[in-house]
Write a structure and sequence with these properties.
The chain has about 230 residues and is of the alpha/beta class. Helix content is about 35%, strand content about 20%. It has 2 domains: about 60 residues, no CATH class; about 160 residues, 3-Layer(aba) Sandwich (Alpha/beta knot).
Length: about 230
């Protein structure tokens, strides 16, 4: 429901079709018309296992923005850079946290990141309509460009010497790089970051889910910005 209503509220979205149960149609914005169907009929229109809550929207993809278009000139809002994270649920959850902490954009590699499909949009709970998507050919070069634009580029890795709060003790806006679970940031991507940082956790746990790690880092960046650096 949240993903569908957010898509309908986004003036950049081109909507092809809306189907809804009678009850769900009552939640649509004024002037928005839907084709009415019974829940089982909507089930048959969707991929197996999809949960529609009575509303489904077929929409054209949003066009990604260029890096400079989305991120220049630098301001206080953080930028999130995703390195080879392929799970749409994790990417969707990161979009949700990015929206919650007023991130400026999410940067993804064009070949090693999932498209913003229904599964990802559902996990994001509407955030894909709020946080711009940037697609780049090379993540390391994108980080270098962000640094040239005035961002402090910080890569999250459990092997870093600096704790997250210490790494973010800088007045510059933050570009935060996170990598896939297990593998983490690729060496070339981590090497392109000005600083490496770790989130201090109990030794009984080896690591955090990548979407949880991104949420914690975004919170810390937002807290630092609110405190004035």
């Amino acid at each position: 429901m949240h993903a569908a209503l957010a898509a309908l509220a986004n003036p950049r979205r081109r909507i092809e079709r809306i189907v809804a149960t009678r009850n769900a149609a009552s939640r649509l914005p004024a002037g928005v018309e839907a084709q009415l169907h019974e829940p089982d009929a909507i089930d048959r229109m969707l991929p197996p296992g999809a949960v529609h809550q009575g509303l489904a929207v077929r929409a054209w993809p949003l066009e990604p923005l260029a890096l400079d278009e989305a991120c220049a000139p630098a301001d206080a809002r953080p930028v999130v850079v995703l390195d080879a994270i392929t799970d749409p649920h994790n990417v969707g959850a990161i979009f949700r946290s990015a929206a919650a902490f007023s991130a400026r954009a999410i940067v993804l590699q064009d070949r090693k990141a999932p498209p913003l499909t229904g599964t990802l949009a559902k996990s994001a709970a509407g955030a894909v309509e709020l946080v711009p998507e940037v697609r780049v050919v090379n993540i390391a070069r994108a980080l270098e460009r962000l640094e040239a634009l005035g961002y402090l580029t910080v890569g999250l890795t459990g092997e870093a010497e600096l704790g997250l709060a210490e790494a973010l003790a800088d007045p510059r806006p933050i570009a935060l790089a996170v990598g896939a679970e297990g593998k983490g940031l690729r060496p070339g991507v981590l090497g392109a970051c000005a600083r490496a940082a770790r989130i201090p956790i109990a030794p009984a746990m080896e690591s955090l889910n990548v979407s949880n790690a991104a949420a914690i880092a975004l919170y810390e960046a937002a807290r630092r910005a609110t405190a004035g650096g």
